[in-house]
């Protein structure tokens, strides 16, 4: 299997509509290259562009979903389309990830449970999701998480208990803490003996440089591929990595550490 992680530069000069068109073409370009394409968190508006969220919010049938559904269908790929600012007509804003099947159907969505910002930003402006999302795919049971969720191992352990074999994590993780991003992606892979595909943004969101370093990690913690990025920032890149979904079952059989779990 091959995955392409599209580390998008959220350029503030480019409008959300222009970016949707551009990224849809990048997804279509993965036809025959990848089986799974992953986009980062809040790439249409910017993960730190709080002032744009209310006006740019959309539904699960909105312009981003429409464009990404068509792109997935045209490319014939599974597409984790990153996340959008979702406006529930009967509720608050949510940070919602979208997973499309190769026929363009919306296969699953996940509303981010852990919101970043403490008493401001996302934590103040968005509601927390309440449900785990673990779904069947050709790559195995896929668990969905988003950015700040990566800091909470209990979320990943709960998805493991629902059969998760790989985790897809879109993010808008800042450059000044990109070392944590790389460390935590590997930690979640090792502790759950799972594949982790973590796609970060590039460029600058509302004055906040993004860390990049989108990464694919196997259950032993081995980095199968990593995009550019460091504490000073990052650039747009499409990272394509081959991976074997069967490595999860083999690892868990060869080194059955999960069998020794104690539940308190």
Automatic annotation (TrEMBL):
Domain CN hydrolase: 1-245
Record's keyword terms, sorted: Hydrolase
Xref: Gene3D superfamilies: Carbon-nitrogen hydrolase
GO molecular function per UniProt: hydrolase activity
Pfam families: CN_hydrolase
Similarity comment: Belongs to the carbon-nitrogen hydrolase superfamily. NIT1/NIT2 family.
Database matches in PANTHER family: DEAMINATED GLUTATHIONE AMIDASE, NITRILASE-RELATED
Protein name: Predicted amidohydrolase
Organism: Streptacidiphilus jiangxiensis
């Amino acid at each position: 299997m091959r995955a392409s992680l599209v580390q998008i530069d959220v350029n503030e000069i480019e409008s959300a509509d222009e970016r949707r068109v551009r990224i849809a073409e990048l997804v279509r370009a993965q036809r025959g290259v990848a089986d799974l394409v992953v986009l980062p968190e809040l790439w249409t508006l910017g993960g730190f562009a709080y002032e744009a969220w209310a006006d740019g919010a959309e539904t699960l049938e909105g312009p981003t979903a429409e464009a990404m559904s068509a792109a997935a269908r045209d490319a014939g790929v599974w597409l984790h389309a990153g996340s959008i600012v979702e406006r529930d007509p009967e509720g608050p804003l949510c940070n919602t990830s979208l997973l499309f099947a190769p026929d363009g159907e919306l296969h699953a969505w996940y509303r981010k449970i852990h919101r970043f910002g403490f008493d401001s930003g996302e934590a103040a402006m968005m509601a927390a999701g309440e449900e785990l999302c673990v779904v069947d795919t050709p790559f195995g049971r896929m668990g969905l998480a988003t950015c700040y969720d990566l800091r909470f191992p209990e979320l990943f352990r709960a998805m493991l208990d629902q059969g998760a074999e790989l985790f897809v994590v879109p993010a808008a993780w800042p450059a000044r803490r990109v070392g944590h991003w790389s460390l935590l992606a590997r930690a979640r892979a090792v502790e759950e003996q799972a594949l982790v595909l973590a796609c970060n943004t590039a460029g600058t969101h509302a004055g906040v440089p993004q860390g990049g370093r989108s990464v694919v990690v196997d259950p032993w913690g081995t980095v199968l591929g990593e995009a550019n990025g460091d504490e000073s920032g990052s650039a747009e890149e499409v990272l394509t990595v081959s991976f074997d979904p069967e490595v999860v079952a083999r690892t868990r059989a060869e080194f059955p550490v999960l069998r020794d779990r104690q539940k308190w």
